[in-house]
Design goal:
391 residues; pyruvate-formate lyase- activating enzyme; globular; three-stranded antiparallel beta sheet; 11% strand; six-stranded parallel beta sheet
Length: 391
């Protein structure tokens, strides 16, 4: 698989729109205790070093899309490491990516816990150019709004109060700012009705356009110790991985019942306050209110996204009865203006080939109810509903 594309899986392939990624550094200096990167890097390292070849690869793809007048497929900056560590002041890898994106009018979904994107002057100016031209969406991740709590899980990252200042500064200027409540940990993150209301009103007042929620995923053997450390006593966890793989530690996530309970409150306030809302890699589509979960819909330029289960959910196809073949995929892509199948052949092979693999895995998941139940439980309800409507 190309390093510019997230690996194919039963969870990523059917659920994620932005599977194209740019990882500008070899490691993240923030060392969050729940960090997911340790599961995905082949040779994990603590050394934060620049990955200069990523800049060359991105420039080649951005130039190709620009010259061929193709719809650019947004890249995520980034997924496994923070793109704006203190090292950015010296290495300027992410700055170069921002400049290339502006030159070739290529959209980016930027995900960060850092405050350096507004503190480093040349980075800030490059980011503002992208935002002014509708070429970027900024996602800021927090797990709690309490600085003292955050130190328990994110001891080196900037405190949430500073990250929220970034949100406020960009949001107050009308820029598309997304908050990722990630990882959500009950009774650590905003959980009660009062906490959620205060949190959501604050986001509204800060100009946040969209909220994404993603519950904690962690190795099964580490759950009890972490919950004790955080003073969380009533959280219930369930298996996250579809199957256990030899050599890899089983991963769990918050039980669906507890997620639904809190997500219902968050969703209600999001709708009331005019904030877009979506879950991340959880398939709880009953709570989604926007065209995509990532916030790409906030871009003000033409772009292309792949299809996901969210599109099939909205199309209300009775896939349990009829199955899903490429004809259904083509129809869904046309209905929601997604890129698929022959559309992809015009893009560089380094991304088009992996995107086709993701597409095949999406169809494979749709043909397996037992997998679908785990990945996106709301899909089965949608299929039942469509079957009833057809009679």
């Amino acid at each position: 698989m190309s390093e510019l594309v997230i690996n194919v899986s039963n969870i990523i392939s059917p659920l994620c729109y932005t599977v194209l990624r740019l990882e500008p550094y070899t490691a993240c200096p923030f060392r969050c205790v729940y960090c997911y990167s340790r599961w995905y890097f082949r040779n994990p390292t603590d050394v934060v070093a620049p990955r200069k070849h990523v800049v060359r690869l991105f420039k080649s793809i951005a130039r190709h899309a620009y010259k061929k007048e193709l719809k650019p497929i947004p890249f995520r900056l980034s997924t496994l490491v923070d793109p704006f560590p203190p090292h950015e002041e010296l290495n300027k890898i992410s700055l170069r990516i921002l400049e290339i994106a502006e030159k070739f009018e290529y959209p980016l979904i930027i995900n960060t816990k850092s405050v350096k994107l507004i503190e480093i002057e040349d980075v800030r100016k490059a980011l503002e150019k992208l935002l002014d031209n509708g070429l970027a969406v900024v996602q800021v991740s927090i797990s709690t709004i309490d600085d003292s709590k955050a130190r328990l899980v994110e001891p080196i990252a900037p405190p949430p109060s500073k990250r929220l200042q970034v949100v406020k500064e960009l949001g107050s200027r009308g820029y598309p700012v997304v908050v990722r409540l990630s990882p959500f940990i009950p009774w650590f993150s905003p959980t009660t009705e009062e906490e959620v209301e205060n949190f959501m009103v604050m986001l509204r007042d800060f100009g946040v356009k969209h909220l994404i929620i993603e519950s904690l995923r962690i190795e099964r053997e580490a759950v009890e110790q972490l919950m004790q450390r955080l003073g969380v006593r009533n959280a219930v966890f369930e298996g996250y991985s579809l199957r256990e793989v030899e050599g890899m530690k089983p991963v769990v996530r918050l039980a669906q019942r507890q997620r639904v309970e809190v997500y219902s409150i968050l969703h209600r306030y999001a709708v009331r306050l005019g904030i877009g809302f979506a879950t991340c890699k959880e398939g709880l589509f009953r709570f989604h209110t926007t065209d995509d979960c990532c916030g790409a819909y906030l871009l003000r330029v033409s772009y292309g996204l792949r299809a996901t289960l969210w599109d099939f959910y909205r199309a209300r196809i009775d896939f349990l009865k009829h199955g899903v073949e490429e004809a259904e995929l083509s129809r869904v892509c046309k209905q929601f203006s997604r890129l698929c199948m022959d559309d992809l052949k015009y893009y560089p092979r380094i991304i088009s080939k992996p995107l086709r693999y993701h597409e095949k895995k999406l169809l494979s998941v749709l043909r397996k109810p037992n997998v679908l139940q785990h990945v996106a439980p709301d899909m089965l309800h949608a299929s039942d509903t469509s079957a009833q409507l057809s009679h």
